[in-house]
Amino acid sequence: MECGPAVLTVSSSYLGVDGHVGRTPLVRLRHFSEATGCEILGKAEFMNPGGSVKDRAALGIILDAEKSGALAPGATIVEGTAGNTGIGLTVIGHARGYRSVIVIPETQSPEKISLLRTLGAEVLTVAEKPYSDPGNYNHIARRLAEENRWYWANQFDNLANRQAHFLTTGPEIWEQTNGTIDAFVAAVGTGGTLAGTALALKEKNPLVAAVCADPYGAAMWSWFTLGNPSVNDGDSHAEGIGQSRLTRNLEGLTVDEAYRIPDQEAISAIHQLLREEGLFLGLSSGINIAGAVRYAREHGPGKTIVTILCDSGAKYLSKIYDRKWLEQEGLDPDLRLVS
Predict the structure, then answer these.
(1) Which residue of 61, 64, 88, 240 could cross-link 82, Cys pair, CB 3.0 to 4.6 Å?
(2) Cα end-to-end span (Å), the chain
(3) 0.85 exceeded by the pTM?
(4) Do residues 46 and 37 lie in contact, with contact meaning Cβ atoms separated by under 8 Å?
(5) Where does the Tryptophan synthase beta chain-like PALP domain lie (predicted)?
(6) Is 114 in the same domain as 215?
């Protein structure tokens, strides 16, 4: 007896990659938790489709622009980015029918620049310049949008960024910790992750501490502790974080603690986690983890502390995972954050 051709029925509940942003797991950082007597948990944002926490902002910005009519089918999205938001916009843009043009400082890791091009973005590398300079990558992206009638994502001042974390990251953490979270720790790039997540958690429980972990050379520690962003006290190799101004995404946010985190602590954190727990992370994750450990030491034991594992270390092989580069920069990957 012959059978007819098989018929595959696809359920409408199946989604493309743009439908799988978020719902990332919380990973217990075992050694750091045991050493401090706290539960230190990392939200595994490197598991998003584009490989970073910035996928949430990218999706939120795109959905908001579609809703407002600012994005039409086949449109071009342009953005100035240190890399991860550009990757998120490109991946999610492909899934929803858009083209991406990414303006990125030439100082960012070659792996990210290469990946953006491989993903199909048009990539313009530009000199690293401060925000006050018209040649800053954000200003270039804005001008390109104006000249070509493209959609400028404007991640730093577009409140759809913060709202994405308010609607997803914060509620997910609350649910995953069964409401037992005591503190949320995050560095500041655009400010969307810290502000949106902290505001959502404080809406559930005002006693949840919002904690900023800031690399040296960034201005948010100065802003939150001194009331001005003028302190210039060094530099950091962390990419995608280290804000010099108060963005719109940060407006209205107050934090309970703000820490200066040196690169060595961040390097120690990520290399120790790789060796001892199999987590392979970028330097911004190290800044966050070191901030969480510092909060645990100051306020523990017994606290439940959540931070963001922003992205994978695969984008930084030529820098923070290259021993020769680390030696040149005076950084020791074998120095442990906690013993």
Answers:
(1) 240
(2) 70
(3) yes
(4) no
(5) 18-311
(6) no
